[in-house]
Amino acid sequence: MSKIVRTAANLLFPFILIFGFYVIVHGHLTPGGGFQGGAVMATGLAMIIAAHNYERIQSAFKKDLLKTLEGTALVLFLTTAVSGFVVGKPFLTNWIVQAGGLFGGEPTVAGNLNTGGIIPLLNVFVGLEVLGALTLIVLTMLSGAKENS
Amino acid sequence: MKQVWTLSAVLLFAAVLTYLIASGDLTFGQPALADMDNYFIENAREETGANNIVTSVVFDYRGFDTLGEATVLFAAVLGVGSLFRKLTPEEEEAE
User: What ipTM did this prediction achieve?
Assistant: First the structure.
């Protein structure tokens, strides 16, 4: 696309990523969460893909990296889910809630970031998975459409 | 003709909805079975430590559902990847 679109997209891109990150990390306090925040971040990447030309995108975006990100996030989600087995609790039990430490803080009305037990962890992993998956779908469809035309 | 059918369908739908709301049969915000909702509202913050009750339902009480959702997304990427893959010369021949 034109230089104006490219410059505007490059300017907006970091802010969209930061906003998506905020939505993911504050998932247990404010509206939003892993899916929504991951979709916001993927939207920023899709904007970059739409604004720049095909060859530059092919060299800048590594599909293998996105695949690894997506798969690793799903594996980490499952690892967190089975981590309750360590203390003898069932699958997906929120076993670190209100136990002190990094994610076990006391929940307040104002909302502290260090609460929620495994919920913030799962939010981050789902966010990474959605980010990788949606960007990968956009990239794959773009290259498929280019090759068949 | 098609527009007439569409318009009448929309008007019929709007009339039925207006009638239902006016007659008081549709009770928005007053579900018949509210025990579960009240339980979440009263206990979610203590049990999950999350202020956002929607997130505490999605990632704690119904966490297994979210795992399925993430798996569906993974499968969707697999499907798109295999649909748009680079064809080998033999496959090109077969087309």
Answer: 0.84
